Amino acid sequence: MTVKPGMSATVEWVVEERHCTRRGHHDIFSTPNMVHLLEDAAIEAIAPHLEEGQSSVGSKVDVVHSAPTLKGQRVRATATVTEVDRRRVAFTIVVEDDVERIGAGTHERFVIDVAKFEARLASKGAAA
User: Fold this and answer.
1) Cβ(44)–Cβ(82) under 8 Å?
2) Which residues are catalytic?
3) In this protein, which residues make up the domain named Fluoroacetyl-CoA-specific thioesterase-like (predicted)?
């Protein structure tokens, strides 16, 4: 893994009905979908720097969704690596639409070995 502070990625979506919640007469970008968008940006920031057989899983999200975005508008999240501590990777997040900043916060992911993770899931599934 060659992940380092300062690495970043931006992911952009057009807000569709599936990304929305309804408030009054308007379909607006939902907070759970904002979290999904920022996680996608964080994944994109580090994925090219992971080794074969590695991936990442989210472990912590702390965001403020501070302004609405209407269905049909564009939203983009930029995730920037701020800290790498062994397998833990921390990010700052900024989320904007074409008009203003709509959210900001922090996110944390852990780099995993996919084979070990799948074995753990299989074991957990067998116990259920």
Assistant:
1) no
2) 31, 39, 65
3) 23-114
Average of per-residue pLDDT across 19-39: 97
pLDDT band at 126 (very low <50, low <70, confident <90, very high): confident
The label of the residue with tokens 């900001």 reads 104
Q: What is the mean pLDDT of residues 118-125?
A: 88
Rounded distance between C-alpha atoms, residue 105 and residue 54, angstroms: 25
Which run of H or of E encompasses 2?
none
SS3 at position 69: coil
**Cα 43 from Cα 65, distance rounded (Å):** 20
Residue where the block lists tokens 């920022």 = 38
Token digits for 49? Answer: 């720097």
**What does the chain come to in residues?**
128
How do the domains of the chain map onto residue ranges? 8-127
Residue 58 annotated in ligand binding: yes
Q: How far is Cα 128 from Cα 126, in angstroms, rounded to an integer?
A: 5
Q: HSE of 108 in the Cβ direction (CA atoms, 13 Å)?
A: 10
Q: 86 phi and psi, to 5 degrees? A: 55, -110
